[in-house]
Amino acid sequence: MSIKELTPTRDDGRAFLLVGVAAILWVVAYNNLQAIADWITYTIMGLNPESLVGESLNFFIYDVPKLMLLLAGMIFIITLIQTFVSPEKTRALVEGRGEGVGNVMASLFGAITPFCSCSSVPLFIGFVEARIPLGITFSFLITSPLMNQVAFVMLIGLFGWQVALVYLLSAITIGTLAGMVLGRMNLERYVEEFVYKVKVNAQGQPIDEKLTWVERFERAAEGTRDIIARVWLFVIIGIGIGAAIHGFVPEGALTSIMGEEAWWSVPASVLIGVPLYSNAAGIIPIISVMLEKGAALGTVLAFMMSVIALSLPELIILRRVLKPRLIAIFVAVVASGIMFTGYLFNLII
Questions:
Q1: Are 176 and 256 contained in the same domain?
Q2: Averaged pLDDT of the chain
Q3: End-to-end CA, the chain
Q4: How many domains does the chain have?
Q5: Which of 45, 167, 203, 294, CA to CA, is 20 to 30 A from 284?
Q6: For the whole model, what pTM was predicted?
Q7: pLDDT per residue over 44-78, tens digit each?
């Protein structure tokens, strides 16, 4: 892409102005959320700040708009970045890399280009068509859904950038190591035969779509609206459950179940999370309160990762290109990596 193509036009200038105004309004609204929540809860509704109902409702009124604003702002930025990185470009950048370096690169691209599980089948076919080793392909496919953009944004909002960074590094590490393990198991025979015959891009060249800044902003806005429309209900339900736990579950009640001392809590959390299907927007507000009530970070992180990375819909979609034995091996390897991560963080944090 040339510098000329990135130079803003007059229409682009108007778009930048609108985005700048929206950003200022976003900052003003975000910085005043707690004061507004306190005013509604304790002044308008007249609830006691020390009461269980008042505390829970204040938590709910504050967290819902907070997470919605974070999602809208961060997803707009992420979606804007994604307009520069297509699946075809990602595949081309990974192509020709050997084991180790290829797995790391595939995991990195999976982390910064979080395609949804619906994209997993065409991406898988495209990687196979490009003769990219199966292990490297799996590194990408594992990290991409595991490094969920909604989850990442919500982790920043609820726990701060340090925990979000831990999540990012864990996702990349699991994707890299799991891909290397799967790559050395010579599992190509468990890929459905038709995959090797499909031609995704007959020209064999990556698609490089030229977009103006106006078009990029429009796509980012459309992508943001689409994601918010799909997750807002999960956010409200998740925060509602979290608010109830926050106000009514006694301190330490979760420590005995999901604390560091309970050695079985990590595998139990993963076993529960693997078959459980939940939107990341719904699960993260709940784990936020679990941590607040004494649950161990590693255990909660393992639970969240198993729900996000090994969701039932994704496994059903992958069944189109993978035979049942390879899906079972895939789940076992990724679940093992998640459990190791859970134990590690319980040990060091």
A1: yes
A2: 77
A3: 44
A4: 2
A5: 45
A6: 0.62
A7: 999 888 887 888 898 889 888 887 887 788 778 87
User: Rg of the chain over CA atoms, in angstroms?
Assistant: 22
Is 205 inside any structural domain? no
Please indicate, yes or no, if residue 42 is contained in any of the structural domains.
yes
Lookup: tokens for 341: 């991560």
Residue given tokens 């459980």 in the structure block: 276
Contacts 24+ apart (CB under 8 A), 228-235: 228/68, 228/71, 228/72, 228/75, 230/279, 231/71, 231/150, 231/279, 231/280, 231/281, 231/282, 232/68, 232/281, 234/278, 234/279, 234/281, 234/282, 235/64, 235/67, 235/68, 235/71, 235/281, 235/282, 235/285
Which tens digit of pLDDT belongs to each residue from 207-240?
Answer: 456 778 888 899 888 888 887 887 788 778 877 8
Give yes or no: residues 62 and 192 share one domain: no
Range of the domain at 104: 90-200+249-348
Residue 16 CB neighbours (<10 A): 14
